Amino acid sequence: MLIHRPADIPPSEITPPEIYRGRREFIRAAGGLVLAGGLGLQAEHAAATKLAGTRPGPYGTSEELTPWKDVTTYNNFYEFGTDKADPARTAGSLRPRPWAVQVDGLVKRPGSYDLDTLLRLAPLEDRIYRMRCVEGWSMVIPWVGYPLGELIRRVEPLGSAKYLEFTTLADRAQMPGVRTPVLDWPYTEGLRLDEAQHPLTLLAMGLYGETLANQNGAPVRIVVPWKYGFKSAKSIVRIRFVEKQPISSWMSAAPREYGFYSNVNPDVDHPRWSQAKERRIGEFSKRKTLMFNGYGEQVARLYSNLDLRKYF
Ligand code: MTE
User: Fold this and answer.
1) Is 216 in the pocket of ligand 1 (CB under 6 A)?
2) CATH numbers and ranges of domains, the chain
3) Which phi and psi (to 5°) does residue 186 adopt?
4) From CA 245, how far away is CA 232, in angstroms rounded?
């Protein structure tokens, strides 16, 4: 049996309608897996647990959800290989439990947060976000999580804390890609404190109403919908509050191509290709990319004093 859910509760009663529609898609996709014999994914999905008691979050979109099958089989997670299909095939070796996230640096209350504590820290919300990859494709994904600001508030950043640095797991035993030096391991990313505190920035622990699939960054990841996808670090193990702007793995790998901010910006080309358009996974023709991925109303004010060509 692929889908674990209490048989007596219709999903329409416990999930918002958009999510339920998505779940129907997801159920179809899961059925497709049986036919396709996607053994790795079947095992993966059998391991997923329903996240109970989630509530609809703000910033919803009426755009069609990207099917669960695409969200979980077309991934960037270099710790599991550089091909989009690699993570779904190889991420079964990731052990998402037990798990802890160390929160330290310039905060009054540093600590280690285990997964159950993180799951209970604040009410879990269903948040449907557009996501845009720097490579020119996009998806609409129903995440489950709560604002990262909830955690930030609890650790009480010091006045000197200006940035957050995220470090993700780099374990050669669980992650075959880490045995190859394609990036500086561990994968690190960073956000300015006010970006991290923005209500759109999620600490995500689920997808399509269930725990995250390994290939999507189980058990806990960051989701920043107005930035290119690589800013959304997966399988995080440490959040450090620092004074200086962190250098991310992508910045150190290719400083001319990847800046710290990496806001979705159709007007600033990647040195090797245009960012003006994108292909929504599942669609044939391209659509125009929107400034800040369409979240300008919420986030443009964060950058009112910044030249976004220089600080790309
Ligand atoms: N996080 C880690 N630890 N390793 C990675 O390789 N890839 C990033 C980001 N987070 C990556 C990561 C990139 S390039 C993208 S586009 C998104 O994850 C993809 O997330 P998704 O596969 O869940 O859509």
Assistant:
1) yes
2) 11-303 (3.90.420.10)
3) -70, 155
4) 17
Nearest residue by C-alpha to atom 23 in ligand 1: 216
The two most distant CA atoms of the chain are separated, in Å, by: 56
Inter-residue contact 19 to 143 (CB < 8 Å): no
What ranges in the chain are assigned the alpha helix state H? Answer: 11-14, 17-36, 39-46, 68-73, 86-90, 115-120, 148-155, 193-197, 249-253, 296-299
In ligand 1, the atom with minimum distance to the C-alpha of 71 is 24
Residue 116 phi/psi, 5° resolution?
-65, -40
Question: Any idea what the Cα angle at residue 45 is, between residues 41 and 48, rounded to 5°?
Answer: 150
Query: Cα dihedral sign for 71, 44, 185, 81?
Result: negative
Per-residue pLDDT of the chain (312 residues; tens, 9 = 90+): 233 333 333 333 334 434 444 544 444 443 333 333 344 555 556 678 999 999 999 998 889 999 999 999 999 999 999 999 999 999 999 999 999 999 999 999 999 999 999 999 999 999 999 999 999 999 999 999 999 999 999 999 999 999 999 999 999 999 999 999 999 999 999 999 999 999 999 999 999 999 999 999 999 999 999 999 999 999 999 999 999 999 999 999 999 999 999 999 999 999 999 999 999 999 999 999 999 999 999 999 999 999 999 999
SS3 128: strand
Ligand 1 atom nearest the C-alpha of 183 is: 6
Closest CA to 241 of 120, 51, 103: 103
Tokens of 218: 């189980």
Are 127 and 198 in contact by the 8 Å Cβ rule? The answer is no
Q: Whose CA is nearest to atom 9 of ligand 1?
A: 230
Instruction: Please indicate whether residue 75, judged by its CB atom, sits closer than 6 Å to ligand 1.
Output: yes
- Rounded Cα distance between 236 and 168, Å, is 4
